[in-house]
Amino acid sequence: MGVAAQRTVAAGSPDPPPRRSEALLDRTDLLPMVGLMALGLVARVVWRSGWGLGDDVLYRHFIYNILNVHIIPADNTSYRVAWWFPTALACRVFGMSEVGMILPITLIDTLAIGLLYAFGKALWGREGGVIAALLVVVCPLDFAWSTMLASDFFISFFTALTFLCILRTFAHEDAAAKRRLWAAAAVALLLAYHSKVSAVLLAPPIAFICLRRWRDLGRPFLTFLGTAVVLFGVSALVAYVIAGDPLAPYHSEISFQGLQGDVAIQFHRLTENVFWLYPRWLFYPNAWGNRFYSLYPHLVVAFVLVGWLFGLRSSLDVAVWLVVVFLGMQFNMQNVNGVWVSGFRNVRHLHVVVYPMVLMLTGYLVTLHRRLPRTADVFFAALVAFSAWQSVSTATKTHVAFADRRNAVHYLMGLPQKTVYSDFQINTWASIVSWEVPFKELEGFDRRKRRQEIAAIDSGYLVTGGAREPYYGCIDCIPLAEEISGPQWHLLREFPGPKEPLAWRPEPLRIWEASR
Fold first, then answer.
1. Which H/E stretch holds residue 396?
2. Alpha carbon distance 230, 224 (integer Å)
């Protein structure tokens, strides 16, 4: 960044002047960018989770139908081509396995680290690129869910790519370069929409960016409009031909979430607890004491409130992007027959705010560093260390829990087939890998009744202990070793894992066999 631009940033300009006709990345960026991407990928693989979320069996069935039945199931996943096409391709190469299903998500997340480096550099120079990429690397939600079947990473990536392409158009004098970037922005916007229909929330911040710079739009902007009209027109036409509805993606989301009629009122009534879920996940520790977003939301709010006193600024464009997307997710509600309802809120759904939040924080940290370098260095190092700790702690929950269920099912698959007794979550994992076995679900909450059920078993296998899905699973449903009684039970295998009792994993995973 030139000296004049640096002075403008230090003076507190919300959006530093672009560097005209300058390549965004050069050879000097190769080492830090690729190094941070490699660091993020390796750390994520070490603490990987894999299969184990509640919807995984549905997603696997969806891809299976494409590859083996040669149909695209008609549900609210069918329009998400940006996710299922690379996933189907990966499964064609690696088979219907955890690797095939989850590799595209891990790869798109790794690419996002590089994308945030480029975005941070575009706004605040190489320093901004390194800070933005490193903040993504150690963001707990991004770190932990990037090795799970969380397709939300695709909309996050293509959303960020859309905004980067748009902002870069104003950094070029060359009309041809502007047209290429506007066309790329339109394509990225379509891919975001075909990752998840909530990409419609991008329209207001895109309009805001264009209105702020309307004098600089020029004729190349027509490339964006024309490309977007053609691409979204073709998308609507395909939807009309296949489903008889040009807005099929939107209506399928409403329908398959159960947000229509009496079903919506019965199962999706908006309550105070549901309303405050997203803000709580942003600002408070979860049930196991981890912060999904580290301290990023707190710092962004603090900088917005008091940063102006010290001349600290970030990007106004990114701020609008962050606020609009969050409010759109927060107030995603419908009124059904006079009752307000809301779709199921999952923590991964709010991943779309991670990248704009990281960029907002990056802007403040860059300006802080240029005013108080030593203080900023210590502060940033402490933030990265805390975030890395939270990332590993958050990922450990699903890393261990999913490994327990994986170990249990894979071990049982190698034994002579008998009825398996345990909680429903073991059977769910068996369904994910399409292993059909006689299964009997034990009593979930009444331990006295469960003891009686176990004592009455004459033949079969029993799975006790271990962990389950820690956020939406049933911990109380897990049978425990102390509930076993009767001479017919013999321990076949105890799997390694945390030895001390944990709230989300009461005891080691064990496999038992009953034979009289």
1. helix 373-413
2. 10
Return d(Cα 99, Cα 91) in angstroms, integer. Answer: 8
What Cα–Cα distance (Å) separates residue 175 from each residue in 123, 221, 225, 425?
Answer: 21, 10, 15, 57
Q: Which two tokens stand for residue 172?
A: 């070029």
* 139/294 Cα distance (integer angstroms): 7
Which residue ranges make up each domain of the chain? 3-13+26-371, 400-514
- Cα separation, 423 vs 468, in Å, equals 10
Six token digits for residue 37: 């991407």
What is the chain's Cα-based Rg?
A: 25
pLDDT per residue as tens digits for the range 50-103: 999 988 999 999 999 999 999 999 888 999 999 999 999 999 999 999 999 999
**Are the C-beta atoms of 160 and 118 separated by less than 8 Å?**
no
**Helix count (H) and strand count (E) of the chain?**
21, 7
CA contacts within 13 A on the Cβ side of 450? 23
pTM: 0.92
Give one DSSP letter per residue of 141-175, joined into a string: HHHHHTTSS-THHHHHHHHHHHHHHHHHHTT---H
Residue 244 tokens, joined: 């008889």
> Residues 405, 468: contact at Cβ < 8 Å?
yes
> 43, 36, 181: which is closest to 117 by C-alpha?
36
Q: Kindly state the helix (H) or strand (E) to which residue 391 belongs, with its residue range.
A: helix 373-413
| Beta strands, E only, 394-457 | 420-422, 439-441
159-177 pLDDT, tens per residue? 999 999 999 999 988 899 9
